[in-house]
Structure prediction request, 507 residues.
Amino acid sequence: MQSFFDSVVALIIKTSTDLPPDVRAAMQHAVQTEEPSSRAGQALNIISQNIDQAADIEGAICQDTGMPTFEIKVPVGANQIWMKKQIKEAIAEATRRGKLRPNSVDSLTGENSGNNLGPGTPVMHFEQWERDDIEVKLLLKGGGCENMNAQYSLPAELAHLGRADRTIDGVRKAILHAVWNAQGKGCAPGAIGVCIGGDRTSGYVEAKQQLFRSLDDVNPDPRLADLEAEIMRTANTLGVGPMGFGGKISLIGCKVGVQNRLPASFFVSIAYDCWAYRRLGVTLDGATGAIKSWLYRDPSVPTIPMMDQAGFKRTGREVRLTAPIDEATVRSLKVGDVVLVSGRAYTGRDAVHHHLSHHAPPVDLNGGVIYHCGPVVAKQADGSWKVTAAGPTTSIREEPYQADIIGKYGVRAVIGKGGMGVKTLAGLQQHGAVYLNAIGGAAQFYARCIDQVDGVSLLEFGTPEAMWHLQLKEFPAIVTMDAHGNSLHKDLEQESGENLEKLAVVN
Prediction:
């Protein structure tokens, strides 16, 4: 089994950097469906470039390289203990190579392990089968979409849909509600795995298992096949659209499984995955561990690029912002404006915002830009840092802190994804600041908009949570919350909710 370790490393790297053909095809369909000049079309333009860029340089598609979940089938009598050790070493090696961001954090102390190892990380599920070879499948599912997982206990009253009973129609309502509720926070267009039944634990496990199916397969149960097809038809009428910007494609896949349940319980569990649907697998020689074949992809078939040209497609109406930004400039912006941000920006995620709520910042934030981002960074031979992946994280987690930090320190712009809530919206209006929505998952595209790393503060929080000092160059984003009390996210949630109401009754 001398090749097992190398094979798992290759699987991890390929999964993190190159989307499988079925996902590429679904995203290409989305590109062809949305109007190129619309917000949805512009988002898909950036996403498409990012997919190509990641594959070209073997870089992480998204800076959030997710929770590694392995599904492993082994011959009877195989040494699973040894395989677990090898898989853990492979995870650590892929992290050292910068293909995975250090993502494993102690839940009590907040300390990052630095190598993606720790209790519960990675997730490994073993199953024996009566074959001589080994099958290893890997799913990398990021935190933004993981937070949009949902579990419903039927019967339930659902916003815009009314009562969801313990019926197929009730299941349908629960699934549609989950897709609507995700909006742009889960980096739509997404794919969902669903489990009908089971208990609270097994339901979620089965839902995630469904994400290992190919997008173009057909459910062998005709009842579930019909449900999957109906969800795909109806979910794409909600108007959530790419990144929650509105549009025709909100969902690229729906896969449903079923488990028996207790009479007293009826759970519908939903695992939501983003457009960066990173899932691959390999078949290994049972004696050597060498790769015999790839699952979901054929290496002999050339990859067709998503785009025939690179570069953000500009309209000439873009607004150029250079940090530090003054209040008058900010108040001149309105929802829907596309901006190109240059100058100094500081990353800040959960740990930084918590810190700033109790302590003065280590830098001057007056007129500044905070970027909700946990980048993948590499230390160069000369001691400098280079950002290798830098897409936005989900902003709503910072809702308890953001308005206070804007007001206290004079922040003028916040870059993130998925939008923020009423407290932040009021703070933007009161203090003169804007929320700029970048495209979730576009880690390679945005890394190219960072000229250099000028420094780092609070590195003791770990590389994803540190405050990185970045020089931006024409970083594109859309004003989705302005200083006049307007929120695109609020408007589209309401509009898509009205569309959801139309689906409450089966035609």
